[in-house]
Design a protein that fits this description.
heterodimer; A: 190 residues; Rieske Iron-sulfur Protein; three-stranded antiparallel sheet; 23% strand; elongated; B: mainly alpha; Cytochrome Bc1 Complex, Chain C; Helix Hairpins; 64% helix; metal-binding (chain B)
Chain lengths: 190, 424
């Protein structure tokens, strides 16, 4: 610490060459370093923030779906935030199947009423929770797996009529997006 | 050269392990730590460091702009407006990039001026100077192509006018212009290649900057006295003396930059560039960005198409041979009583050219531009070679320390005061 510029006469600074004593220069270095760190952070912030969704992207983050043309037993796929969302008009039998399953059998236990807002309408994000493929089962002619819901062809995950994982590698149920009924025949997703 | 691990003096075991295998830390210590630097720098010696920082700012902001820009004639303008309105802090990043171009030219022009005033281009720093002129040329090309990307009216017509310069070349001119355009007018292929090159060239600049700095570290820096350091009493270690001095300049530079970006972000631009490009209508008064104005004035001063183009490029080309035009052995203008005023006049004349370039090409403005063009070249081609023969320079000081340290600075006395931080 050859601090020829440190004010050695200052009483509270003590001996600038002492092993434990902080010198004025140490203090200045600390303050300068702190300001530089804050400055770098302040500069980095807008750049990182610019990579988050822009306002026009956020403006498209809600999707309205009209339900009155979806007959019982049918399902439609809508685009929401660049991903497919399955809207399925379930039959009474499918609802019955979903409600009858004992929770103990489920890998990701959730009762059917937690999965839907109104019983006939199941709304789930159509992205397999394993590695992101789109499961089959939207058409009645598609393979729907062993539980009548959806079947993911990539790695063989089976989902039931409440979109819950029943067999295969996927860890969790198909996600239920945030949505609300705007009327009896329209929902807004997001 | 002997092979084997580098004999590192670094204490920290991890850094030492790397340094033995790749001695970058030893190199940094040698080139930026203890590097002996003339002790008498003034603040004009900040501008090299400022230019480097500016290049980094341009590359970083540019990379983030490119994440949101679309290089297509039908979408480019809208994508830039989207950056301004929708992208988080997009307005900030674009304004920094836009004004960063102006700041870059201000900084580099001051840097060049310092070279001219203190004769830094002279032996043994000719190659260092030539790399600098190459950087300046690359900057102009990069800035021009960047200005085209927003695809506003000035973008389009600037691109049209500048690319048409090449049509002045006899015989092959038109073919070259078609080649540059990738079509029969400035259009989508032109925009695409300009974006590609605009992204590439800054990295080429960074490469030439490396050569520029490497050359500098062979010869060492010039200084306001223009005489070489004669020993340790004439120099200071780069760190902390010039890292600290550069930091002061950097803060001042950031203040100016911030005032431009936050208070007058469009002051140096042209409003017509916020009108989408229209190939059917040329703006009434078409001018390039301010940093091209002096060269634009030279172009318009000549009443001949090829002659104007040649003279404009010649205005840069003459800089390449400047070290061999100015044969005076005295570098610093402080000791050149006549050349000093000739150069001052050249500096004022540069601003006159800039002003003339912004005026309409008619009447008195053309005459002024012609006289200014004549002096621009006369300084390099007539005045400097002539003064090298007839000017009688003032006596040079014995040494840097002799001139700048009060009471002399004999070698043994100076050595003690020269490096109070050396053992820090």
């Amino acid at each position: 610490m050859a601090d020829t510029l440190a004010p050695t006469s200052s009483p509270d600074m003590g001996d600038p060459h002492g092993p434990e004593q902080g010198t004025k220069r140490d203090f200045l270095k600390l303050v300068t370093g702190s300001f530089a760190a804050v400055g770098v952070g302040a500069i980095a912030w807008p750049f990182i923030a610019s990579m988050n969704p822009a306002k026009d992207v956020l403006a498209l983050a809600s999707t309205d779906v009209t339900l009155d043309h979806i007959a019982e037993g049918q399902a439609v796929t809508v685009m929401w935030r660049g991903k497919p969302v399955f809207v399925r008009h379930r039959t009474a039998q499918e609802i019955q199947e979903a409600k009858a399953v004992p929770l103990g059998e489920l890998r990701d236990p959730a009762p059917d009423q937690e999965r839907v807002q109104r019983e006939p309408w199941l709304v789930v994000v159509g992205v397999c929770t394993h590695l992101g493929c789109v499961p089959l089962g939207q058409k009645t002619t598609d393979p729907r797996g062993d539980f009548g819901g959806w079947f993911c062809p990539c790695h063989g995950s089976h989902y039931d009529t409440a979109g819950r994982i029943r067999r295969g590698p996927a860890p969790t149920n198909l996600a239920v997006p945030e949505y609300e009924f705007r009327s009896d025949t329209q929902i807004r997703i997001g | 050269m002997a092979s084997g691990l580098h004999d590192s003096t670094i204490q920290n075991p991890v850094i030492r392990w790397i340094d033995q295998r790749l001695p970058v830390f030893t190199m940094m210590q040698k080139e930026y730590g203890s590097f002996p630097t003339p002790r008498n720098f003034n603040y004009l010696w900040n501008f090299g460091a400022l230019a480097l920082i500016n290049l980094v700012i341009m590359i970083v902001t540019g990379i983030f702009l490119a994440m949101n820009y679309t290089a297509h004639t039908s979408m480019a303008f809208d994508s830039v407006e989207r950056i301004m309105r929708d992208v988080n802090y997009g307005w900030l990043i674009r304004y920094v990039h836009m004004n960063g171009a102006s700041m870059f030219f201000i900084v580099v022009m001051v840097h060049i001026w310092r070279n001219l005033y203190y004769g830094s281009y002279k032996a043994p720093r000719e190659l260092l100077w030539i790399f600098g002129v190459v950087i300046f040329l690359l900057m102009m090309a990069t800035a021009f192509m960047g200005y085209v990307l927003p695809w506003g009216q000035m973008s389009f017509w600037g691109a049209t006018v500048i690319t048409n310069l090449f049509s002045a070349i006899p015989l092959v001119g038109d073919s070259i212009v078609t080649l540059l355009w990738g079509g029969f007018s400035v259009d989508n292929p032109t925009l695409n290649r300009f974006f590609s090159l605009h992204y590439l060239l800054p990295f080429v600049i960074a490469g030439v900057v490396f050569l520029h700095v490497a050359t500098l570290h062979i010869t060492g820096s010039n200084n306001p006295l223009g005489i070489e350091p004669k020993g340790p009493q004439d120099t200071l270690p780069f760190h902390p003396y010039y890292t600290a001095k550069d930091s002061v300049g950097i803060i001042a530079y950031f203040i100016v930059f911030a005032v431009l970006v936050f208070f007058t972000p469009n002051y140096l631009g042209h409003t017509d560039n916020y009108i989408p490009a229209n190939p059917l209508v040329t703006p009434a008064h078409i001018v390039p960005e301010w940093y091209f104005l002096p060269f634009y004035a030279i172009l318009r001063a000549v009443p001949d198409k090829l002659g104007g183009v040649l003279l404009m490029f010649g205005a840069i080309a003459v800089l390449f041979v400047l070290p061999w035009l100015d044969r005076s052995p005295v570098r610093s203008m402080r000791f050149r009583p006549i050349a000093k005023w000739a150069l001052m006049l050249w500096g004022i004349n540069f601003f006159v050219l800039m002003w003339a370039g912004a005026m309409p090409a008619e009447g008195i403005y053309v005459t002024i531009a012609r006289l200014s063009t004549a002096y621009y070249f006369a300084y390099f081609l007539v005045i400097l070679p002539l003064l090298a023969k007839i000017e009688r320079p003032l006596p040079l000081p014995e040494s840097i320390s002799h001139a700048v340290l009060r009471g002399g600075g004999r070698l043994h006395g100076a050595a003690a005061t020269a490096k109070p931080m050396e053992k820090a």
